[in-house]
Predict the structure of 6-phosphogluconolactonase-like protein.
Amino acid sequence: MRKTNLRRIGKFRCIRCPSSSKHIDIKRIMVKLERFSEEKALVHEFGKYILEKQDSALADNADAVFNIAISGGSMNQALYEGLVSDKDIFPHIKWPQWRIFFCDERLVPFEDPQSNYGQFKKIVLDPLVHQGDQLNLGPTVYTINESLIGGGETANKKIAEEYASLLPASFDLILLGCGDDGHTCSLFPGVEYNYLVEEMARKVLWCYNSPKPPKDRITFTLAVVADAKNVAFLVKGPSKKAIMHDVLIVKNSELPSVLVNEIVGAKVTWFLDDTAGALIPQNC
Ligand SMILES: O=C1O[C@H](COP(=O)(O)O)[C@@H](O)[C@H](O)[C@H]1O
């Protein structure tokens, strides 16, 4: 098992000796951990963290843009609560300067409840445009090409290639979730998904065998995550407590979320509620 890890990690640049794949004592790389006993405090601090990253990307420059990539699932509700309905934070968000991308997307029409964009639009985008009884200017949102959905293998590859061509050179911030199997983006653990985690040349891939529905998706590769200026995970709920132990304490390198820690290191912050972090010692 260790050999597999070495091979896989050997493809990444070691942050301490970039020209060599020999020195891979990555278990010591530190990530930041923020823990909260109250849901409200968690989403507020998460919102504040995003605002901070927005401010450093824009630095009062009206022409600058904030390139952010978001995940699906539980992320949407946290974004709504932390950015849109939070009255302290909402007025400081410069939405028109935001360029929003999706870390992964399910290859279904946008009106399908499985669509990450569809859910983001419903939970975050539509409410923010009408927040505070006024019509607000929204961000620019980059979606996959919906017209290609249902076109089979060639079309699915094209969706991934087209989406990759839209991405900025690097992201100011990538917001990730972690599934109860340790997946992040649509990068899943297990040998049958090695084609996804081992890809470092292309930025976006078609995932053709997702173990969770729908089976066809696109996903950022680790190459995109590795180049981000900041990466934050948001993980909530008791169903995540075992995997959080595997990721943060055991540091099982077979898990894609652990690979993110290993390759991004100190630029990663984990936001956890107490139920997800129940097996993580308090002094961590
Ligand atoms: O399938 C997915 O799951 C992960 C985790 O979602 P969560 O609801 O457990 O937070 C998500 O980050 C990813 O974008 C999504 O497509």
